[in-house]
UniProtKB/TrEMBL annotation:
Residue span, Transposase IS116/IS110/IS902 C-terminal domain: 20-96
A Pfam match: Transposase_20
Organism (species): Cupriavidus basilensis OR16
A GO molecular-function annotation: transposase activity
Official protein name in the record: Transposase IS116/IS110/IS902 family protein
GO biological process, any: DNA transposition
InterPro entries registered for this protein in UniProt: Transpos_IS110, Transposase_20
Length: 103
């Protein structure tokens, strides 16, 4: 059963150009890349990366008017599975970046 699920994820990865682009980011593998595509789909609905991160619950939401920026708390309202996968990927990258000697 597990092999069938892994095979279907790999098949989808090979067919989706968007998944391939996302998987090029360090710390993001096939499972996280397909989860991003499944959850977000077309990312053009967000004005920038910060809006996407706020939607996921990774950064505080911002409400501003009259030139005053008022950051709110981190909501944690987004997709819990996707947020957790991204955080684990970032931790994996940070763990191995200490041993690198290049710039």
């Amino acid at each position: 059963m597990v092999h069938l699920i892994e095979a279907s994820i790999q098949t989808f990865m090979k067919q989706s150009a968007l998944c391939k682009k996302i998987a090029e980011v360090p710390g993001i593998g096939p499972i996280t890349a397909t989860a991003i595509v499944a959850s977000i789909g077309d990312a053009t609905q967000f004005r920038n990366g910060r809006h996407l991160a706020a939607w996921l619950g990774l950064v505080p939401r911002q409400y501003s008017s009259g030139g005053k920026s008022r950051p709110q708390g981190i909501s944690r309202r987004g997709d819990t599975y996707l947020r957790t996968s991204l955080i684990h990927g970032a931790r994996a990258v940070l763990r191995y970046v200490k041993s690198k000697t290049d710039a």
